[in-house]
Design goal:
Belongs to the UPF0718 family. With about 350 residues, this protein is mainly alpha-helical. It is about 80% helix and about 0% strand. It has 18 helices and no strands.
């Protein structure tokens, strides 16, 4: 147990150290750029630092929101409650899961810990997946940001929202058919890591099962759970943000614009772009709008639908908390379903 705690502490310390280093470079960037010793640092790496911090600073509030929602679910929501409100039929449960995603203002930065906690509390895997891919797009904040970014082109707004709702149900149904006989796809290692962080929380809860915990005890447990998951998720956020910053800095955008000359190739290119940029779903509509003169409406819709469902930073989070086979199946399913749905929608209907 002590060895496991030491490894976890070491990973947390490494992640915090990396974030602290980039933060120091950000705060003292003027001094760094004028220092004689640091003049040899290429501007590209200064740009990596800036983009990295922008992604992290943008994502941290939503990560905090997600881990606190996850902690509240752990403390206040029982397994019986989840089972009582979900339809017994597996396919019938997909629809209310998509509706739930339209209510809660969670982006893809915050959704992974919430879904993980719901599944641990008894929500079926396929229902959790519907919520995972629907909530980052269908929530009211994203609807508003997309409306203002594309107020002169409402087709993209309604295409984004309509596809997100329908495709989330389809993706959930496909993954249910694949994993219906193996519904437990959470990684045991992640569960053990979480438990080993604060073992005394579980002990306190077991002692209180005979009576109802007091308000202060619930607040304390909520803070403990939230802090545990924040440090767990933070490591993968930092790693994903750093790699995304490298791609944003060194990827040749002119090459992408050259390739994206028609609906088929441009949609694929913009989906790849959405994956690598790892933008928060609350802000990605304004980035997509900036490409409006170079790319088709179909490709912009693919960018707006695919990015919140799957990007580089939440891929690391998914692999950390779900089994690799499931994550690979999830990635393949989301990619194919989104691509062909966008092509069909704009090719046959719009």
């Amino acid at each position: 147990m002590s060895t496991s705690k030491g490894k976890i502490f070491g990973k947390d310390l490494l992640g915090l150290g990396l974030l602290f280093l980039f933060l120091i470079l950000f705060l003292f960037s003027d001094q760094v750029s004028t220092s004689e010793r640091m003049e040899s640092i290429p501007n590209a790496w200064i740009n990596v630092n800036t983009i990295f911090l922008s992604i992290v600073i943008e994502a941290i509030p939503f990560i905090l929101l997600g881990v606190f929602v996850s902690a509240l679910i752990q403390i206040y929501v029982s397994e019986d409650t989840i089972q009582r409100f979900l339809p017994k039929n597996a396919y019938a449960a997909l629809f209310p899961a998509a509706l739930l995603g339209a209510i809660l203002p969670l982006c893809e930065c915050a959704i992974v810990p919430v879904v993980r906690r719901l599944i641990k509390k008894g929500m079926p895997l396929h229902t959790g997946i519907v919520f995972l891919v629907a909530a980052p797009i269908l929530n009211p904040v994203v609807f508003a940001s997309t409306y203002f970014a594309f107020r002169n082109n409402p087709t993209i707004l309604y295409s984004r929202m309509g596809l997100a709702f329908v495709l989330s149900i389809i993706i959930g149904a496909i993954l249910y058919s694949i994993f219906r006989k193996q519904p437990d796809q959470l990684r045991n290692k992640a569960n053990v890591s979480l438990a080993s962080h604060h073992v005394h929380i579980e002990e306190d809860q077991s002692q209180k099962r005979s009576g109802k915990p007091g308000f202060l005890a619930r607040v304390r447990d909520t803070v403990y759970h939230a802090s545990d998951e924040f440090f767990m998720m933070g490591k993968y956020l930092i790693l994903g943000a750093f790699i995304a910053a490298l791609f944003q800095t060194f990827l040749d955008r002119s090459l992408l614009e050259t390739i994206g000359t028609n609906t088929y190739t441009s949609t694929f290119v913009m989906m790849v772009f959405a994956y690598l940029l790892s933008l928060c779903s609350e802000a990605d509509a304004f980035v997509a709008a900036s490409f409006g003169s170079q790319f088709t409406d179909a490709s912009l819709t693919g960018f707006l639908v695919y990015g919140p469902m799957l990007d580089l930073k939440n891929t690391f989070m998914l692999f950390a908390f779900f089994k690799a086979r499931f994550v690979i199946a999830f990635m393949i399913t989301v990619t194919f379903i989104v691509y062909f749905s966008v092509i069909i929608l704009y090719g046959l209907i719009l």
